[in-house]
Specification:
- This protein is an alpha+beta fold and 145 residues long.
- The chain contains two helices and eight strands, in the order βββββαβββα.
- The strands form two sheets. Strands 5-1-7-6 form a four-stranded mixed beta sheet.
- The protein starts with a strand and ends with a helix.
């Protein structure tokens, strides 16, 4: 029987929409949970002792070079993913984010993101997105409360 590791991770993700486009980060080979090459929401793991909004801000800086001007918790979801001999239990916190001014560029070297782009919502397909990004699209389709 293979040695299977189980890990739990809490992550904070940004849903940033501007002009009919969604800000997404493409996952690199260093992505621990979701498959490389998929477009994913900017964000990532909450470090021990770190508040979720602090993690969101740090991850946005690393993956997009941008700062949140405002962030509002929208929803939370869980994912069970097996990758690289690890069974991941991911708890994802989704934030609606307004970004401060600036250009979107990957600032972190050798991280889990190898590209960042504003992609048109109308052109996004589930097959090109991580499960969390697919769920974010569904959240955007819901009528406002």
């Amino acid at each position: 029987m293979a040695d299977v590791h189980v890990r739990t991770r809490v992550s904070a993700y940004a849903i940033a929409v501007e002009g009919g486009r969604l800000l997404l980060a493409r996952l690199s080979d260093a992505s621990p949970v979701f498959l490389p090459g998929l477009w994913h929401l900017p964000g990532g793991g909450v470090d021990p002792g770190e508040q979720p909004v602090e993690a969101l801000t740090r991850e946005l800086r690393e993956e997009t070079g941008r700062e949140p001007a405002a962030a509002r918790l929208l929803d939370a979801r869980t994912y069970a993913v097996r990758r690289g001999g690890v069974n991941w239990n991911l708890v994802a916190l989704f934030y609606a984010v307004d970004l401060g001014a600036g250009e979107s560029v990957v600032a972190e070297i050798d991280g889990s993101t190898d590209a960042v782009a504003w992609l048109p919502l109308a052109e996004l397909r589930d097959s090109m997105l991580s499960p969390a990004a697919v769920d974010a699209l569904r959240m955007l389709e819901r009528p406002a409360a």
